[in-house]
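Support reply, case 0932

Customer input (verbatim):
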Amino acid sequence: MRAYLDRRVRQLIRRGVKSGLIEGSNLWLSIGALAWLFRFLTRKSAPQVTIERLRLGESVVVSHVPAPPRSRRAKKKAAKQLAKQERSQAKRQAKMASSRRYVRSAARAASEQAAEQEALSRKADRAAKKHSRRKRRVSGEHIGEGDVEATA
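Our regenerated output:
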């Protein structure tokens, strides 16, 4: 509703300037002036969030997040832009995935990862075998796998 009123007030101001100042109509000049006064008085100021002093080592990050679209037309336009960006990103990704360089680098990374996993599994197997073969002695007797060593 606010956007609708704002648009109508802007139209009245525009018509008041055109018909009142340029064409010389006193009625439209007064309507335009009242519309401008209404718009000026109903304007909202931007809210101030916080005021703090920074200590040594602190920093501030300022970013701009655009307001979400309000009208149906703006929402539709934003959805179209998002879909277009997604399509172009998918197209770029498909083009990159089909390149030989990308395929080779992906295969190289996969083989390196497989080799790393293989090395880790071999290391774990060796540690398990070493642990199971270890014989512990307590006063000259061999201890089996399930027995526990007691030390004093």
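We compared this against your earlier run and they match. Two observations from our side: Residues 1-42 form one domain. The chain is about 65% helix and 5% strand. Please reopen the case if you see a mismatch on your end.
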